[in-house]
Amino acid sequence: MIVITGATGALNGATADHLLEHLDPSGLAVVTRDPSRAQRFTDRGVEVRRGDYAEPDSLPAAFSGADRLLLVSSNDPGADAVALHRAAIDAAVHAGVGRILYTSHQGAAHGSPFAPADGHAATEDLLRASGLPWTSLRNGFYAHSTAWLMGPWQSTGAVSVPVDGPVSWTARQDAAEAAARILLADEPYDGPVTLTAPTAPTFGELAEFASERSGRTIGFEVLGEDEWLARSTAAGQDPHMAGFLLGMYRAAGQGRFAGTDPLLGQLLGRAPRPVQDQIS
Question: Considering the entire predicted model, what is its pTM?
């Protein structure tokens, strides 16, 4: 049996949908903090189990019988994500899960200026130490995030960033489908696997794409960190969120999201969606 956490979210929910194109519903169970939000899976004959990383006692039963368990990473900015992931991994060990698959990030690395990347690296350390077979799905930076990371270029006429750098912008839909294919694969995918689009455009190149999509000239400027932070907070951005986002740009400037890998296209059997599809 395949067990999926976070199936009421966009990423793992799409993975579950892809799995159901190939699996009998009896071969899948989904775990959620609020089973009432998973009615669409109940309606399709999928077992819905309650489990919450913040309630470790709820997890062993939720993970019971899993040959493969897909753990979604915590997206709560106020939580200790690594502690939550530790609870989930410990429960998977207790439940005798066959393999853990974890939704990580291409830039996973200790010491990254992008805080989630450090958390993903720490979680991968926990997976290595768990004694269970594991796979870390190092997804490329999700392309839909360009909607806010490019800034309000539609109104300002320019993409304004504090630091520029290449990013292998990857469609979340493609990452979800690839996860399903890996879950269904006969061969194991051990350790970290990188799932990215085939190119890594800079923010400057995104501005060029925006010009092409909009039919008007969109400028590009690197403001520097202080000026960008000042403009962001003046526009109403929460200072803590602005600092969080600044870490992403810093990591991009260091080339931490620049790598690309052909595996995503190979799994999909087609070219991954280009970032241009997300720019409008």
Answer: 0.95
